[in-house]
Amino acid sequence: MKLFQKILIANRGEIAVRIIQTAKNLGIRTVAVYAADDAASLHVSLADEAVLLEGVQLRETYLNKEKIIEAAQNAGAQAIHPGYGFLSENAEFAAKVEQAELIFIGATPEQIGLMGEKTQAIAFVKELRIPVIPGKTGSVSDILGCSSELEFPLLVKASGGGGGKGMEIVYQPEQLPLALEQAQRQALQYFGNDGLFVEKFLPKARHIEVQILGDGQGHAVHLFERECSIQRRYQKLIEEAPAQALSQTTKEKLYQSALRIARATKYRGAGTIEFLVDEQENFYFLEMNTRLQVEHPVTEYITGVDLVEWQFKIASGQEFSLSQQNLTAKGHAVELRICAEDPLCDFRPASGTVGELVVPELCRWDSFLQSGMPLSSSYDSLIGKLIVGAETREQALSDMQQAVKNLFIQGIKTNQEFLLELLCQDDFRQNKICTRWAEERLPESIQRIQNKQLGESALEVLAGYLLHHFYRSSHASNPWNAQGYWRMHSVFNIALEGEWHEVQVHPKGDMILVDWKGASYALKIGQFTGAKLEFQLNEKDIVIFISEEKEQTCLQWEGRQLRLWSNQVLNHVRLNKDAGKTTQVKTNQVVAGLFGKVIDVLVKPGDVLRKGQNLLIIESMKSEFTIQSPADAVVKHIHVTKGHLVQDKELLVDLES
């Protein structure tokens, strides 16, 4: 049976790009759908056709089942690929696709309905004699009614959700009512299903998942396992394949449990069975994802299997020719989730417009970014995935450190430096991790980033700044260059993150001698490629990325973003007209420090506030942020209401003392 001629992708972002790439390799034409705020996304540019989903709310665009199916029919597509997230695990959508005589590239509606709802899935898996975590399900009142029977700490979860939404650790019985209330609100908001359940919390567990493929007739294979234990707020940060801290005996038990589920459901397509494994290697079924996973690239690396290609083959009815004995795992792969967020400001989502994009060599970069595109607050903060593979875990981690240092996304604040900090920690390199590892070390990890001293490495940054401003051929109009600036002894005063440095330079043969803090260094000019600068300092190879901001230069060095300026650079000249003025923090106004949507206003005019009291909640990139009062005050005026779309630096609340 032949593959499809044309498919529609009911998704956006990097997964839509990923599906398009395999479709093109197979000669399948693609139809993209997009909301207006995604018009500049790469998936729209790469697809053979693109259909605008009119509307501003998700329910009008990517969650509108009827509109997407109609778009597929009008375009003459034979099938719909749901990607992951959005409608990918919506049984009703899968059924509607099939009712429209289109093919749903994924699990059957019945399989999605059974395994996508956690309480049903757990009950089904228990019948297969696969271990599950002890817990209770029901309404809020049901769970509270049996709280005396529960073992604390426990985890509150949304029955129909994932991605950490509606999840809360509860350590004491008195904390349970509030946690259930918050989880129920989030579950209803994100999944349209306010069902909850609670289960025993395993503080030192690893998150291990097994990738499966099934033909829908009862035949299935596993493609080994992935380690997904590095998480923050239940969102995965770093994924690896294979997992190296488990015995082969435990791995085989996990494989057989996953296959038992796949065969019992006669599973169709790609899916993932997720487990928690404790310190004694006891394992428990966690959930099944009836779709492709964000972290699927690491499995593709170690197996050489294109999972999207097999999704196409299975959905089109081609022969299922994969056999377990012919599948092998070779090497080691690591994936980092690159997000538009600021770790030093409580991981608040970052806004901006993408400038130059530089992707490191010898790695895989799955992303939807294009130069010139603005980021929307309507979606999560994931903007790309960096994937590296090597023969060993040690080499893969070493290569990944270099890759994350050499990834440059101009105009967008990312979590690169935070991920690099995690990669370098001894416990991580020695594989002494669990699902709480990153969370428990978060304060000290952030503190290390804040306290990181450049030391002698500061000269690498200063040298890059000087090369950028006084040597690039594109700056030939600069009067310093016209006068042969580098041919004379020169002294520069440069502010690096507010600290002044004096640097002396003078030529010597084919290099420049740099004097700094009483020592001399040999600077050898290398290559200028857009924002990327390559040079040598005392024979050490340096790579730095440069971009210009108002009255300063932004420089990325080893994943870290730094700001520099000097009065010897014409557009950086700063007059002392503001000297003597004192800086005051305003406490009579509350201004948004991010962009997003107001989902709740917790105060009203006339309310008397204490410093730190919650004022309102803003949702940005699928995360919630609580805005607090900066001082003891009285609410004078509230400028926003529930549902209001907030811009960065927008005035939210007026206060008076």
Structure description:
- The structure is a single chain.
- This protein has five domains: 6-105, Rossmann fold (3-Layer(aba) Sandwich); 134-200, 2-Layer Sandwich (Dna Ligase, domain 1); 206-451, D-amino Acid Aminotransferase, Chain A, domain 1 (2-Layer Sandwich); 455-572, 2-Layer Sandwich (Glycoprotein, Type 4 Pilin), CATH 3.30.700; 589-656, Beta Barrel (OB fold (Dihydrolipoamide Acetyltransferase, E2P)), CATH 2.40.50.
- The chain starts with 5 loop residues before the first strand and ends with a strand.
- It has 657 residues and is of the alpha+beta class.
- It is 26% helix and 32% strand.
- It has an eight-stranded antiparallel beta sheet, with helices on both faces. It has an eight-stranded antiparallel beta barrel with strand order 22-23-24-25-26-27-28-29. A five-stranded parallel beta sheet has the order 3-2-1-4-5, sandwiched between helices.
- Helix 12 packs antiparallel against helix 13 (416-424) and helix 13 crosses helix 16 (442-451).
- It is built from 18 helices and 37 strands.
